[in-house]
């Protein structure tokens, strides 16, 4: 189903809440915004078929526990309308669908959505809506969803404040925003060990398992360039959300951010 697009006033902010420059980060590179969007698309098209296998290898299977915890925080309920943004392969959506909530899975990448739809057919799940969407320019009308979830996707968005603004726009009053994302490790020792793992070992795992070293090097670099928990929390508040909070996991290796629209 198609909905009219209600444009927002263009943002002047970068992903770190500063005035927008001509370039944005793609891993450790600074590139024009349109180039980042295209290159991120190429990354996820490349890894789509091996994405869930790589998640297990990258996290030692812990991503499953993080996602379970995330969905418990969302606490989906029957009768709710939930938008799962950047939800391509359906990992979060399948967990929420069991509640009886109406789930719309949105992703900018058609290859990731194709994997998710295939999994839905295999599971016999026909209740979910799958929609190709750019998080910065959602086609849904204002005040359309009760909850907005995004897991391990916000750091790949070119203009994060604009995406947060769109999340706020499409939520109903009383709606909830939830984000699960890698963050900045604050535990001494673990931070150094994780940096070594992500920069040295992760790209090699990508080469062995997915045949794609460069894409996983980008994923590691994108984590390092993402704002820390406090900064990202401020960005969520700047988008209009209230009662914002963050729940660090493993000292900030990952974090659950949330906020309300009132």
Describe what you observe in this structure:
The protein has 262 residues and is an alpha/beta fold. The chain has one domain (46-260): 3-Layer(aba) Sandwich (Rossmann fold). 43% of the residues lie in helices and 21% in strands. It has nine helices and nine strands. It has helices spanning 33-47, 51-59, 62-74, 91-97, 110-123, 160-170, 190-210, 213-225, 229-238; strands at 24-26, 29-31, 81-85, 102-107, 129-132, 145-151, 171-182, 242-249, 254-260. The chain has a seven-stranded mixed beta sheet, sandwiched between helices. It has a two-stranded antiparallel ribbon with strand order 1-2. Strand 6 (145-151), helix 6 (160-170) and strand 7 form a beta-alpha-beta unit. Helix 2 packs antiparallel against helix 7 (190-210) and helix 7 runs antiparallel to helix 8 (213-225). The radius of gyration is 17 Å and the shape is globular. It starts with 23 loop residues before the first strand and ends with a strand. Mean pLDDT is 85; it is low at 1-21.
């Amino acid at each position: 189903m198609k909905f009219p697009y209600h444009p927002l006033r263009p943002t002047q902010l970068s992903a770190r809440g500063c005035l927008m420059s001509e370039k944005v980060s793609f891993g450790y590179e600074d590139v024009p915004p349109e180039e980042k969007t295209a290159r991120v698309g190429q990354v996820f098209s490349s890894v789509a078929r091996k994405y869930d296998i790589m998640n297990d290898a990258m996290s030692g299977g812990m991503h499953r526990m993080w996602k379970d915890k995330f969905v418990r925080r969302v606490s989906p309920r029957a009768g709710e309308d939930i938008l799962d943004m950047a939800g391509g392969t359906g990992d979060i959506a399948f967990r929420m669908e069991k509640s009886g909530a109406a789930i719309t899975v949105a992703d900018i990448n058609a290859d990731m959505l194709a994997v998710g739809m295939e999994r839905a057919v295999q599971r016999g799940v026909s209740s979910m809506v799958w929609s190709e969407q750019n998080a910065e320019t959602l086609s849904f009308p204002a005040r359309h969803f009760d909850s907005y979830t995004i897991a391990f996707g916000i750091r790949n968005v070119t203009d994060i404040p604009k995406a947060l603004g769109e999340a706020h726009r499409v939520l109903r009053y009383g709606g909830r925003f939830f984000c699960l994302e890698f963050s900045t490790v604050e535990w001494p020792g673990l931070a150094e060990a994780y940096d070594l793992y992500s920069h040295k070992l992760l790209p090699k795992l990508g080469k062995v398992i997915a045949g794609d070293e460069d894409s996983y090097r980008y994923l590691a670099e994108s984590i390092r360039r993402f704002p820390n928990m406090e900064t990202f929390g401020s960005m969520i508040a700047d988008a209009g959300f209230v009662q914002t909070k963050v729940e660090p996991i493993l000292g900030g290796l990952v974090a659950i951010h949330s906020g309300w629209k009132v």
